[in-house]
Here is the input.
Amino acid sequence: MKRVEELATKAERPALFEQAVLPHLNAAYNLARWLTRDEAGAEDALQEACIRAFRFFEGQHGESPKAWFMAIVRNACLDWIKANRPRALEEPYDEDAHASPAPHGEPEPATARAAEARWLHACIAALPHEYREVIVLRELEELSYKEIGAIVGVPLGTVMSRLARGRDLLQKRLLAAPRRMTS
Here is the structure.
């Protein structure tokens, strides 16, 4: 994809920005929510990311506007975390601290599905930051390894190893904690 500045006049750039970025707002919010672990923080980080993206849109280039925007969202989230919870990126994964209590009875089917979804989300949220972000980008947002590498700023091999390690940790967590519903 050619640079935006080569393709459009100044008057056309806002419309091009909307076409490139707005379709990815839901995915960007999901990523921000998973990274910040805070609804208001995710909204703040996403707003900051949109401002940054608009400011630097003229220099945007590459194959994927989504990957470009998600990288900006990730960086805005990391800035928000540093400002609001400086130790959050350093927290190691502690299986005992993140253990789920055993279920106390059989809830209704819809309630059981909701409880299982919350349980699964809690298992993902309990992963260390570097594994959680690649799991979210790959499994929930369905980005390619190449796009994830561009977003996170690491080589392809690192993406693959983090994804493998994150999946292993998630699998161990899922097997260790009881399921919240029966089939």
Observations:
- The mean pLDDT is 82.
